[in-house]
Amino acid sequence: MSGKDSRTSVTRRQVMAATGATSAALLSGCLGGNGDEQSSGSGDQSGETATDADATETPIPQTSLSLAGWAADDTESELLKQRISDFESTHDNIDVSYSAVQAKYKQKLKTQLGAGNAPDVFYVDANYFGSFAANDVLLSLDELEADQELDTDDFFEPLIDAFRHDGSLYGVPKDFSTLGLFYNTELFDQAGVEAPETWSELKQALAAVAEKTDVKAPMMEYGNARMWKALLYQNGGQMLSDDESEAVFASDEGVEALEYMLELRDEGLLATPDELGAGWHGAGLGTEEIAAAIIGPWTFPFLAENHPEVDEKIDVAHLPIPEGGQKATSAYTVSYSVAYNTDSPAASRELIKGLTSSEGMQKWAEQGLALSARKSHQSLQFYEDHPRYKTLLEAGEWSVPVAYGPNSEALLNRLHPELEGAMLGQQSAEAALTKAQEKINTEVF
Amino acid sequence: MARSNYEYPGYEASGATYWTKTTLLYAVVSLGALWMTLPFWWTLTTALSQNPTASSVTFIPAELTLGNFVTLWERPDILLVRWFLNTVLFATAVTLFNLAFDSLAGYSLAKVDFWGRDTLFLGFISTMMIPGMVTLIPVYLLLVELNWINTYQGLIAPLAANPFGIFLLRQHFKSLPSALGDAAKIDGCNEFQTFYKVYLPLAKPALATLGIFTFMGAWNNFEWPLIIANSNEMYTLPVALFAVRNQYFAEWGLMMAAALLIVAPVIIAFLAAQNYFIQGMSLSGMKG
Amino acid sequence: MSFEESRTDTDAESALFEVATSVKQQLGINRDQDNLMGWMFVLPNVVMFLVFLLGPVLFAFFISFQDWNILKNEGTWVGLTNYIEILQPWPWENNFAALKDPTVNLWWYSLKNTAVYAIGTVPLQIFGGLAIALLLDKRVRGKKIYRAAYFMPVMLSGAASAVMWRWFLAADGVINGLLEPIGLAHNWAGDPATALGGVMLMAIWGGIGSNMIFFLAGLQNIPEELYEAARIDGASDWEKFRHVTWPNLGNTSFFVIVMAIISSFQVFGIALAFSAGGPYYSTTTSVLLIYQRAFEEGQMGVGAAMAFLLFILIFAFSYYQYRYRQSEEVDY
C-alpha cells in the first residue's frame, strides 16, 4: 500500500481547479484539454528565433506585472502568492499583482484578449492554447528556450511540446496531471485480484470485484468516456493525422478501444456517475461504491480530506494497456504564457522563469495540487515519500496531452456528445466515432 | 370578487350532485396545489438532510441537520453575502432606471404633443417583438469593446429600459385627466414640474406594480448575468446557483440548501405582498 | 393630438381644455416647446434603445455574415457561409434524418427539440392555467391560499427550478422514490429519451401559475350580466363557458398563447441548468445551441446567424397569429 500523501489543506475544488477539471465537465463534456502534441520533435528550433539574446542581460527597469490564473479558493491563491513573493524577494525591480479568477476564467481571458487588455502573464490550458497561439495573441518565449537556468530540455517533452506552435514556444508548463488507475486495494484483495496490466486483466479484475464484493459498480467513468482518448493512443491510434490537417480517430484502433469500454459497460463493470448518484470518480471511490476509476492526482486531496480511512486503501497503477499495445495516458497541462501586447516582455519572461525554474516548480509541485512538469524531479524526496504521485508522474513520459491543435475545443465539443451517445447505448462505437470524425472534418477543419 | 352566488358550483343542482361536484372541485384544486408546492417541501427536506436519499426526504425527513448550510457558509468559494448583495444591487439599479426612464417616456408619450410621437411609440412597442437572444451576442460584443464585461455597469445598463414599462406607464398616464397638467401650467409649472409634482404622485400604483415586476425579473434573471459575469465575485444568485450546481453536482443536500437560500427571500417577499405581485402579473397580461 | 384624445374625460374637464388652450397660447407654450420637452423626456429611452436594441440588431445581422474572432474582436466577411453551414443538409434531402440523429445537423435537431418542447408545454400551461382560474373563480374556500400555492413556482428563477428538478428526477431522486414501489423508477434526467420530458414537466409546473393569474384577471373583466342572461336562457355550465367565458377571454387568451409560444421558442436557461443540453443533445434547444456556439466556442458569427433564423421563425409565427386573430375578429 502506498504511503500517505495526504495534504489536508487542499480541497477537491482547489485541485480540480488546478487541473482545469471541474466536475461540471462531466456533464458538459469539456474536461478535455487540447494542445498540439504532434508538434513533438520541434524542440530544438529555438536558436533560430532567439535573436534577442541580450534581452536577459539588459537590466529590467522598475516594472509592475499583472498575473492571472484560476484558483478555486483562497488557499490555492495563498499558495501561489507565496511563490510570487519568493520571486519578488529576488527581483526587487519587479512587482507582481496576482489576481485569481474563480469562475469562468477562459471566457474572461478571451474577452480581455479581444479587448486588448489582458494581463501580462496568465495561465493557458493546453485545451485552448492552440487557438490562442494560432490567433497570435501570445508572445513567443523562444528566448527562454536558450536559457540555461530554465533548461527547457528538462520538461517532459509531450508537455512542453503542447505549448509550441509553428516551432516557437508560447508557454511554459506550470504543472500537469495524468490519468492513472486508482483502485481500492481492500476490495481488490477481497476479489482476489491484483492491479491489472492489460485490458483483459482489467476486465477480469472488474468482473471478480463485481462478483465478490458489494460495490454498486466496479468502475466509474464519465458519460463522455474521458479515458477513451488514452485507450486510443494505447491501441496505436491517434486523434489527428500527422500534419494535423484532419481528425483520424475513427480508425480501427479507436473503434476497438471504444468497443472495449462499451463491453465493460454492457457487462455492468463500468457505470456513469449519473447512474451511481455520485458526482464524480473521487466521490465514488471515497464511499467505496466503486472499486476503481481512471482519474488524476486531484483526487488525492479530496480523499484525504473527506474519506481519510478509504484513502489509505487507495493505490495507483499505470493504465492497463491492450495486448501488444503501447503505454499511453492522457495528460492535462497548463502553461504560463505572456500576452502579445505586454508592456514588459522581459519582466514577464523573468517571472515565468522564476515560477517554473527547477526550484520554483519543486516548491509548487510539493503542494500536491498537481505534478511537476520536470523530468529530473522524479528523483525528488517528495515523490519517494509519495509513491502514488510518483506513479502518475512517471506516466508523464508517455502521456499525450489532451490538446488537438487550434480547433481543439470545437473538436472535443463535437466528439464528447457522440461518445456519450455510445455510452448511453444510443449508437455503436463505430457509428459514434465515424459520425464525430466526419462532422469534425467538415465543420472544424 | 363581486361575483354572486350564480357561479356557485351546482347552484341549481340537487344536493347529491352538488356535493359530488364540490368534492371533485376541491380534490382537483388541492391535488394541483400539492403538485405546485411539494417541490418546495422536497427542497426544504433535502436541504436539511445530511445524506438525502429518495425515501428519506419525500415526506417526513428522517433526520434534520443544518450541516449543509454550515458547509455552504464555510466553503471559501461560496460567497453567499457577496452574491446576495450583488443581486440586490443589480435588481435595485435595474428597477430604478426602468422606473425613471419609463415614466419620463410614458408621460411624454401620453401627455406631451410632440412631433413624431405616435411613430416613436409604435417603434417602442414593436421592439417588444425582438427576441432577447438576437441582441445577446451584439450587446455582448459591444460590452467587450467598452470593457464592461464582468462589471456592474455591464450588467445593469443594457436592462435599464424596457418597452413594456413604457407601454404600461403611458397607458396609466393617459388615463389621468389632462386638465391636471393644464391647471399646473397655469400655476406656472414647467413641463418637468408638471410631470414630477402632479402626475408622478398619481402614478404610484402603476409604478409600484412595474417596480415589483421589474425587480422580480432582474432578481431571477439567469441568462444575462450568466453571460456578463465571469468571476465568482460578480455573480448574482441564479448564476451562482448554477455554478454551485456544477461544482457540487450530486451533492444534493448542498445544492438544495443553496437553492433554498436563493428561493427563500423571493417566496417570503411574495407571501408578504401577494396582492402586489399578482396585480403586477395581471397587468402584464393586460397589454394583449 | 393630445387634446382630441383626452376628450373621453368629463364635461367639466373638456371645458377646462378650452381654458387651458387659450392659457397655453397666452403663456407662449407652443409646439416648439412641446417638441423639445417631448423629445427630452423620451431621450434616455431613445438612446438606450438605439444602443442596446436597434443598433445591436443591425450589428447582429452584420456579424451573421462574418467569421467573428472573439480573440481579436473582429471579423472577416464570409457571405452566406454561416447560414449555409447551419442549414445544410436540408432536412428533406436526407429523409428528415436530422430530426432523429443529432449528428446529421444539430440546428434542425435543436429546432425539433424546441418544437417538441413548445408543443408539449404550451397547451398544458395554458389549459392548466385556464382550468385552475375557472375553478378558483368560483366561490372556493381558502382561495387566496390556493392562488398563492399555484403562483409560488412563478416566483422562481429558472436556474433554481432547474436545479431543484434535476434532483427530483435524478436516478436516486425523490420522484424515483415515489415510483420505485410501483416499479416505474427510471433515470429520467440521464436518459436521452426522457430528459427533455423532465425539462417540460418543470416548465409546465412553473408556467401554470402565471397563466392562471392572467386568466383570473381576464375573468374579472367579464360583465356579470352576461352570465345572468345565460342563466335565464337555461345555459349549462359548458354552454356558459363556450358562449360567454371563452369569447370574452379573447384578448387574454390571444396574449397568453402568443407569449407562451414565443417564450417557449426561446427556452434556454432551464435546459442549460437542468442538463446542459445533454444527455446526447436531448435537451439542446435552439437558443441553448446558440449560447454554446457563441459563448462557449466563441463562434459569434454562427451564433448570430442562428439567432436570426430563429428570429425570422418567431416573427413569422407572431405575424400569422396576428393575422389569424384579425380575420377572426371580423366574424364577431
Structural description of this entry:
Chain B: This is Carbohydrate ABC transporter permease. Chain B: The chain crosses the membrane at residues 24-42, 54-73, 80-101, 121-143, 252-278. Chain A has 445 residues and is α/β, with parallel strands linked by helices. Chain A is built from 22 helices and 13 strands. In chain A, the strands form 3 sheets. In chain A, strands 1, 2, 3, 6, 12 and 13 form a 6-stranded mixed sheet that branches. Chain A has a 5-stranded mixed sheet with strand order 9-8-10-7-11. A two-stranded antiparallel ribbon of chain A has the order 4-5. In chain A, helix 1 packs antiparallel against helix 15 (299-306), helix 9 (185-191) crosses helix 10 (199-212) and helix 21 packs antiparallel against helix 22 (429-443). The longest helix of chain A has 17 residues, at 74-90. Chain A is globular. The N and C termini of chain A lie far apart (47 Å). In chain A, 62% of the residues are buried. The model of chain A is unreliable at 1-56 (pLDDT under 50). With 288 residues, chain B is mainly α. Chain B has 2 domains: 5-65, no CATH class; 77-286, MetI-like fold (Orthogonal Bundle). Chain B has 15 helices and no strands. Chain B has helices at residues 15-47, 54-57, 67-74, 80-111, 117-126, 132-146, 152-156, 163-175, 178-186, 191-202, 204-220, 223-228, 237-247, 252-272, 274-286. In chain B, helix 11 crosses helix 15 and helix 14 crosses helix 15. Chain B is globular, with a radius of gyration of 24 Å. With 332 residues, chain C is mostly helical. In chain C, strands 1-2 form a two-stranded antiparallel sheet. In chain C, helix 7 packs parallel to helix 13 (269-275). The relative contact order of chain C is 0.11. Mean pLDDT of chain C is 85; it is low at 1-9. The chains are: A alpha/beta (445), B mainly alpha (288), C mainly alpha (332). Chains in contact: A-B, A-C, B-C. Chains B and C meet through helix 1, helix 2, helix 4, helix 5 and helix 6 of B and helix 1, helix 2, helix 3, helix 5 and helix 6 of C.
